[in-house]
Write a sequence for this structure.
């Protein structure tokens, strides 16, 4: 059985150097960077007395496979109030990464908060990004924007900040603002595939498919193995699956069921369910194919930024007519159906 990987590898934004490395820790750093974690632990045990206690705590937490133990180690370091401010900030940032990776967003933010409220912020841009992502997950988008906007162009985290600002813009349905943020970051670092993928999303949301296709072609040519392209391909596959399910529904639906699908044009629709898993939404769509041949899936985000897949049918101008149809279908098919305004969802209902 392979030994468990250090928990810090789960923290995708974790910095490798937060506290300056002393000469006695060079071997630890070298083994860790090369993925030789058992060797890193042995080297750390042999050089613990040569390094500062805070540095040893930092590396012990990174090499700890038990998240609770890693958390406790970092908390013990932060309790040493005599440590220099920069050292304590480094430990706090490491602990915030750890808690964020465990979906403890409020706990992660609480650790960073004392450093954010100081007269001089003792955190690098990376720390402001974690604070912003915590606030976004909690539902405070405005505070998240403020943290991201505070990161200066000379900070290494600037392009990441522009990306997340654009992502929040898309979440809010402001395609134009999102595109400006992605392009701003792209001018600063035009080789970041995430920003290119963000531009692709924003352009598609705005209906500028030709420009989006050009960006996608460039990504496939110059960054064929990037994670951003993997995510784009996932989205495209989902769209294709949904389209195939919809076409199959129309082919298989009996003629006498077509009359049950409301056809009026308007801003109200009937929602039959909302799922956090798109596969479940597709299964639900297929299961109801004979009753609702025009059933569609709307991808949106809630206030915490989490994806939701809403299964809907119909389009009504008059809300009373929509409610009447919802009652009829509910009584006839024993389904839970609600009337929704299609413009009142988070994300893009396009």
């Amino acid at each position: 059985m392979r030994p468990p990987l250090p928990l810090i590898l789960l923290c995708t934004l974790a910095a490798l150097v937060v506290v300056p490395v002393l000469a006695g820790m060079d071997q630890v750093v070298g083994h860790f960077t090369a993925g030789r974690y058992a060797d890193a632990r042995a080297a750390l045990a042999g050089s613990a007395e040569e390094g500062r206690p805070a540095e040893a705590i930092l590396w012990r937490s990174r090499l700890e496979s038990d998240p609770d133990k890693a958390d406790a180690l970092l908390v013990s370091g932060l309790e040493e109030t005599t440590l220099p401010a920069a050292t304590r900030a480094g430990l706090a940032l490491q602990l915030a990464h750890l808690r964020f990776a465990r979906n403890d967003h409020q706990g992660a933010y609480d650790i960073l908060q004392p450093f954010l409220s100081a007269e001089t912020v003792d955190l690098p841009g990376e720390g402001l990004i974690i604070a912003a992502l915590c606030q976004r997950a909690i539902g405070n988008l405005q505070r998240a924007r403020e943290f991201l906007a505070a990161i200066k162009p000379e900070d290494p985290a600037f392009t990441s900040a522009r990306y997340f600002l654009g992502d929040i813009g898309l979440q809010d349905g402001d395609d134009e603002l999102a595109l400006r943020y992605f392009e701003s970051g792209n001018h600063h670092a035009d080789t970041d595939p995430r920003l290119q993928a963000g531009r692709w999303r924003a352009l598609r949301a705005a209906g500028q498919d030709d420009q989006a296709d050009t960006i996608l072609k460039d990504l496939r040519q110059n960054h064929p193995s990037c994670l951003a392209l993997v995510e784009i391909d996932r989205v495209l596959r989902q769209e294709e699956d949904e389209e195939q399910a919809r076409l199959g529904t129309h082919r298989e639906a009996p003629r006498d069921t077509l009359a049950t699908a409301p056809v009026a044009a308007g801003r109200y629709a009937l929602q039959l369910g909302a799922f956090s898993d798109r596969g479940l939404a597709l299964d639900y769509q297929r299961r109801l194919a004979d009753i609702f041949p025009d059933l569609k899936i709307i991808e949106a985000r809630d206030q915490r930024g989490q994806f939701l897949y809403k299964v809907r049918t119909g389009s009504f101008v008059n809300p009373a007519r929509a409610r009447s149809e919802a009652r009829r279908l509910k009584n006839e098919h024993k389904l839970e159906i609600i009337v929704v305004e299609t413009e009142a969802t988070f994300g893009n209902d396009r």
In short: The CA atoms of residues 168 and 174 lie 9 Å apart. The longest strand covers residues 307-316.
